[in-house]
Design brief:
two-stranded antiparallel ribbon; mainly beta; 13 strands; globular
């Protein structure tokens, strides 16, 4: 039994600043929370502190400092409120202390003479409804039960053939929330964007622990799609992996191929 994404966020409704949280084990990843839900909770807390007039989230920087386990608490502070932008710090604390720190930038849109985009989605991907799940039933980290994650080429990434340095460390996956009410607000997008394993798993001869250290994202804010099925295409590429760390780029598109999120992650690799 899983706890819906919207149920987790509903805990912030009455006490957004200094909120105490109960997060069930199905959102876990090893000895801590899934990083995407830690980041999403920080975003949702910041939005509630700013209030109903909050402009859209434009960028976020997340540091996963320690394990988010045991009793959890969120503290949120507006660092600066300008005419069009608001900077917010949101901290998630666990029983061992500070777990996640987020610096978030919200910004209102403005008229501009420039409207340019050069971030095309990969071609030749399969319809997500025809692709098998990335993880077999009951396998993978606990949090994956809250999402549908499928290889966009219909092939597993965990086979012996896939785990070879002859393949470039690149992942291309379809993903969406299982919670039909999750929506596509900033918090839901942030949670979704962190669902895949790091692309560096393509380089590992055998399974080994991995842990995200920092994550930087930009939210690109296209208008919503009509008849949206909720599927998002996510590509991550491990560009440099050495000395126990991997630096990867990430991009998330909607089904129409419009970019939604771009980001970078630094990951500790224990292999």
């Amino acid at each position: 039994m899983t706890t819906p994404f919207t149920t987790l966020l509903a805990q912030l409704a009455d006490q957004p600043d200094g909120s105490t949280l109960t997060v069930t084990p199905d959102w876990g990843q090893g000895r801590t929370l899934f990083g995407g839900i830690s980041a999403a909770l920080c975003v949702a807390s910041a939005e509630r502190v700013i209030g109903q007039d909050a402009p859209p989230l434009r960028s976020g920087q997340f540091a996963f400092i320690g394990p988010a386990s045991g009793p959890l608490k969120l503290s949120t502070e507006i660092l600066r409120r300008g005419k069009s932008t608001i900077f917010v710090q949101a901290d998630l604390h666990g029983e061992a202390g500070l777990a996640t720190r987020a610096i978030l930038t919200f910004g209102a849109g403005r008229n501009s003479a420039i409207d340019d985009e050069d971030l095309k989605a990969p071609e030749g991907v399969l319809d997500p409804e025809t692709c098998p799940p990335l993880h077999p039933e009951g396998k993978g980290p606990g949090f994956v039960a809250n999402f549908q994650i499928r290889p966009a080429n219909g092939k597993t990434i965990f086979s012996a053939e896939a785990r070879t340095t002859k393949n470039r460390p690149d992942l291309l996956l379809w993903c969406r929330h299982r919670d039909p009410d999750a929506g596509m607000g900033a918090a839901a997008l942030i949670a979704l964007a962190d669902t895949p394993p790091p692309a560096a798993v393509r380089l590992m001869p055998v399974s080994a622990p991995i842990s995200t250290m920092t994550w930087m994202v930009d939210i690109l804010q296209p208008p919503p799609l009509e008849n949206d099925r909720g599927w998002r295409l996510l590509q991550s590429t491990a560009q440099v992996t050495r000395a126990g760390y991997s630096s990867q780029s990430m991009t998330l598109w909607d089904e129409a191929g419009r970019p939604l999120v771009v980001g970078r992650q630094n990951i500790a690799v224990f292999a």
